[in-house]
């Protein structure tokens, strides 16, 4: 069995065509949709129109791909599994059917050891029937996981779990997809006794059962944390700050309407990405931007307001992956121990845990006097524009990677209702974040990270070397933060986010390539796009006309 994704699959992927980024081609990005729909404010990256809870529940039921009839499969012997763990036969596949968080490194509830067996691929049972409301069909994610990992009808497959129903669920699905030679194995003892493999960085995320223990203490349902939670978080729950983070205040966001993890306070992303006019000479239609606060202001002003000090442990929850990455890196920069709950709210719902809704469930933050430190212990968690310029100029090693949509990369569309400049930055690489047809390229169907091997192949086929610094960006870098956080969780620690992005870059008059291939820049005094000779080449595409004139 080959642990690495098959060479033939790699070649197929290399020939695949690229599509779009930082939102969906031909539709608004989530950066535009989420905030525009709730009073026309800011960016977010890749989502669909808002739906009622009833509509979402119906959609969830309709799109489950868990086979309705589950047949039994022969059980593999431990010796067979060990052979699959050590051989190099392309025709044998060992598949882990558990949740991605356990595959990556976390111990399952009641167990002491996490990670996966040597040579194992990942095809989680949760992908088949988890809560799912994306426009992209669920099956696309499953088809991609099979194709990119070389799971096809001609392979001999052993599917394992700890001892539950996951292996049986996945085996039945694979059988319906034409895989003929399938056995299952309950690997509880083997996972305990073997040298399992874990990703460096798996603890960027936290399993929902540990978050549930914190939630129970915060809401008074339990007096103390579970043993598993204490092993990770310590015995003092007062240090833990449980946060629901999303754009909008409690009433504008999904905190009250769709629900939040009980006991979580809410943070509006506008609190640390202030909507301000940074270039006052611009037309009012396009003057506002969302830029991160300075690290110092974030540390000294915002963190104490929400009860966060240097000794806090922060757990980020909610259904906005981009916000988890964005706030997560800010907190990690100032040395706060930070986790995001695995799978946004998907794994939480899958476990059957409740969400609190309505104004009687509001939890208000308890402020502290100060953060307690003036240090910035991890200044390279986020990459800033000065360093980006050095990389672009060849003065420092690295790659600047644009994950926006294809039309944005080509300079045909700004991509954001509040921005008027369209183009790309010279010497950057295009690596698409998502599109409607294929969904999220860095995530599974349950919003967990894809395997390290899959992400490496995806980035390489787009010209990105994940072994060298790869600094992602989009409009305001929401999607870039998600990509970096999810990649780092599977050990790709060279992937980082540029803290700003295309919108600040272009607004500040830095050079870019427009849709005609011209090197141009924005002149704020003339409110025009000028070429290298200072000629006004504004054409309604590289810079939009005023909304009132349009």
Radius of gyration: 24 Å
The quaternary organization reads as single chain
Parts with pLDDT < 50 across at least 5 consecutive residues: 2-21, 23-51
Terminal Cα span: 60 Å
Tell me the name of the CATH homologous superfamily of the largest domain. Answer: Rhodanese-like domain
- How many structural domains are formed by the residues? 3
**CATH class placement of the largest domain:** Alpha Beta
Q: What fold name goes in the CATH topology slot of the largest domain?
A: Oxidized Rhodanese, domain 1
Tally of strands: 21
Mean pLDDT: 91
The helix count comes to: 20
Helix-and-strand structural type = alpha/beta
Strand content: 15-25%
Structural account:
- The protein is α/β, with parallel strands linked by helices and 550 residues long.
- It folds into three domains: 143 residues, Rhodanese-like domain (Oxidized Rhodanese, domain 1, 3-Layer(aba) Sandwich), CATH 3.40.250; 160 residues, Rhodanese-like domain (Oxidized Rhodanese, domain 1); 150 residues, 3-Layer(aba) Sandwich (Oxidized Rhodanese, domain 1).
- Helices cover 29% and strands 15% of the residues.
- Strands 5-11-10-6-7 form a five-stranded parallel sheet.
- Helix 14 packs across helix 19.
- The longest helix is centred in the middle third of the chain and has 13 residues.
- The N terminus is likely disordered.
Quick synopsis:
The chain has 550 residues and is of the alpha/beta class.
Note the topology.
Elements: H1 7-14, H2 30-37, H3 53-62, H4 78-86, E1 92-96, H5 100-104, E2 120-122, H6 126-129, H7 138-148, E3 156-161, H8 166-176, E4 181-186, H9 188-193, E5 205-206, H10 208-218, H11 227-233, E6 240-246, H12 254-257, E7 265-268, E8 273-277, E9 288-292, H13 295-305, E10 313-317, H14 321-333, E11 337-341, H15 346-350, E12 382-383, H16 385-392, E13 399-402, H17 406-409, E14 429-430, E15 434-435, E16 439-440, H18 452-461, E17 470-473, H19 478-488, E18 495-498, H20 502-507, E19 512-513, E20 519-523, E21 528-531
Parallel strand pairs: 1-2, 1-3, 3-4, 5-11, 6-7, 6-10, 10-11, 12-18, 13-14, 13-17, 17-18
Antiparallel strand pairs: 8-9, 15-16, 19-20, 20-21
Helix pairs in contact: 14-19
